[in-house]
Amino acid sequence: MKILKNINKNFFDDLKILLDSRSQFNFDNIDNQVNEIIEEVKLYGDSALCKYSEIFDGVKINSEDLLIDKNVRNSYKKNIDFNHLKSFERSIENVTHFHEKQIPKNYEINKNNLKIGSYWKPIESVGLYVPGGQASYPSSLIMNAVPARVAGVKRLVVVSPPKKEGLNPYILALLDILNVEEAYQVGGAHSIAALAYGTKSILPVNKIFGPGNAFVASAKKQVFGKVGIDLIAGPSEIVIVADKDNNSDWVASDLMAQAEHDINSQSILITDSLDFAKNVLESVDKLIINLTKKDTIKKSLTRYGIIIILDDILKSSEIINFIAPEHLHLQNKSKDEIFKQVNNVGTTFLGEYTSEAFGDYIVGTNHILPTSGSSKYSSGLGILDFMKRSSYVELNEISSSDLENDVSIMADIENLDAHKLSVKIRQKGKK
User: Fold this and answer.
1) Cα separations (Å) of 51 from 173, 190, 337?
2) Which of 151, 153, 230, 305 could staple 301 via S-S, CB 3.0–4.6 A?
3) 227-271 residue pLDDT tens
4) What is the rounded CA–CA span in Å between residue 232 and residue 371?
5) Sequence-ordered strand ranges (E) for 81-132
6) Residues annotated as part of the active site
7) Does the global pTM surpass 0.90?
8) What structural domains does the chain harbor?
9) What burial letters (b/e) apply to 367-388, b meaning 16+ CB within 10 Å?
């Protein structure tokens, strides 16, 4: 892990260079290929989906196999531990409760014979992409499907790449628990094209959600406009603030928990003690030995891991707002004071017992969060992402007459005669 000190003259310049070195996705080499895939799906539909499933997933399927049939969906019952399934059910309960609090309110204003209002409606249909490769995460299906259900979305469509050994049984189980009727074994850029433009087997949706590889991200970027998309999420990241009184083993485990996601993940430690930082590095060396993804962790920490040494731990908030991390874990004793000054973050975890993994799985907050500094202008996934707001206006003869002259003046300034006519004509032709 690279060490930076805030007392250095070029500290923020050096930090920016390190942050910028970790790009989200390099689309330059794949955008054209993805565009060809999208165009082929638009032209040939199901046959293109089957073709690319064989090319990219090594699985030969027919159009009749795209929709996951009942026998496959029920196969999970022989392949899971139902006691383990209770943990996922508890997660669904907590995520549901948390997101129910986000349901927005409609409102109406009545003033001087003018009625205006705003109301929310769910998006009618959404597609949920569930990765099926190394990152096959049932928890991500929960984080997408639950707020969609709470928002009132009627049609949920799940797509996930086919696998020779079969689909993840816990994902199949969750399809039942979450009442997802449409689930297709198709993935990659071709599945995004199908969700956007439709095929004989898959009707198009209004908005697409869910993480994926660079091909999926490129496809989402290219179909945006035809459909809505959630966000283009980059590799995962965390900033941890800890001082000499914290447990170095605990902090090391939190750094590694984020690093094991991907070699491009980023784990950053902010502390006011160089000795403590050295202890954390020693803890990493000690604890990493028995971890299954130790090679990924090592590469991630070596490439993108950063340790920031401050002369005053209370200066953390300025650096946190500069980084705008996906996850923030404040473990130090002055955590509450720092937390008050933090503006740019996906989710904050407060206290040394609040491991970020609780947010990934069970407490109820959504783990789909803005990355690569995008928390400066965006939020984590929530109810509003699955809804749309409309407004309405109702005038009568009195309110129309009261506002008619103002509209006429503004229309004249903007040289829009028909606008002016549409309000004047009603005054001339009053009943």
Assistant:
1) 28, 10, 56
2) 305
3) 999 988 788 999 999 999 999 999 999 999 999 998 999 999 999
4) 9
5) 107-111, 114-122, 125-129
6) 326-327
7) yes
8) 2-24+234-364 (3.40.50.1980), 31-229 (3.40.50.1980), 396-428 (no CATH)
9) bbbbbbbbbeeeebbbbebbbb
